[in-house]
Amino acid sequence: MERAYDHLLSLLMTVKIAPGERIPIDTVARQLGISQTPIREALSQLEAEKLVYKTTNVGYRASPQMTPEEVHDLYTLRLLIEPYAAACAAEHMDDEALSILQAIQADMDAVVERDEQAYARFAEADAQLHRLIAKGSGNRLIEETIERLHAHLQIFRSLYQNSAQPNAPEVAAREHQRIIAALLAHDPAAAEQSVRDHLTCSQQRMDRANGTSRG
Ligand SMILES: [Zn+2]
Questions:
Q1: Ligand 1 centre and the CA of 20: distance in Å?
Q2: How confident is the model at residue 194 (pLDDT cuts 50, 70, 90)?
Q3: Cα of 5 to ligand 1 centre, how many Å?
Q4: Same domain, 103 and 172
Q5: DSSP string, the chain
Q6: Which residues surround ligand 1, an ion (CB under 5 A)?
């Protein structure tokens, strides 16, 4: 079921299954060489996470694309949770987390220096940093909530990849550098503030890219 879940999640996140599109359970089962049962189980978990929905005749479909207002609201929710998670993470991060953080730092430095390969890796490094903060909260519910929000956002970003540049990589990379420095310094107040500043700026960039004028 875990393999089926990961496979379906990646199909959704990369919009290989587009928003609103039907999910062909039999095809997916054949691709993975497994029965339909674990796929149905994975789908019901994805349904609980609002990434897919069930219809009476057709079966499962990928959830519709988020509206600009929903993206705005998603950032508002992240702003309520992630600064707190970052403050906890600054206090509790273990050696393993800190060494991953140093690797992400090197990636961010490269992005700021406009290294093209680092540019390509940016989305992944971004996801990794926010996942590390979520995990560092030491609160599993918070961790899962942040992960789930990130999946929704990733799908939205995949759709907008070419039309808009919602998260200008080198600007966001500079914001990430501040967060990483605060975490490495075990400074909860600075970690909290830098995550709040980063998400506020990201929200504004998204709003601008989507033409939302809401506060
Ligand atoms: Zn970020």
A1: 27
A2: very high
A3: 25
A4: yes
A5: -HHHHHHHHHHHHTTSS-TT-B--HHHHHHHHTS-HHHHHHHHHHHHHTTSEEEETTTEEEEPPPPPHHHHHHHHHHHHHHHHHHHHHHHHH--HHHHHHHHHHHHHHHHHHTT-HHHHHHHHHHHHHHHHHHHHHT--HHHHHHHHHHHHHHHHHHHHHTTT--TT-HHHHHHHHHHHHHHHHTT-HHHHHHHHHHHHHHHHHHHHHHHT----
A6: 126
| 58 CA → ligand 1 middle, Å | 37
Ligand 1 centroid from CA 122, angstroms: 9
Predicted confidence (pLDDT) per residue in 127-162, tens digit: 899 999 999 999 999 999 998 888 888 888 777 664
21, 45, 62: which is the final residue of a domain?
62
* Domains identified in the chain, total number: 2
* 101 and 147, same domain (yes or no): yes
pTM (two decimals) = 0.82
Residues 49 and 141 in one domain: no
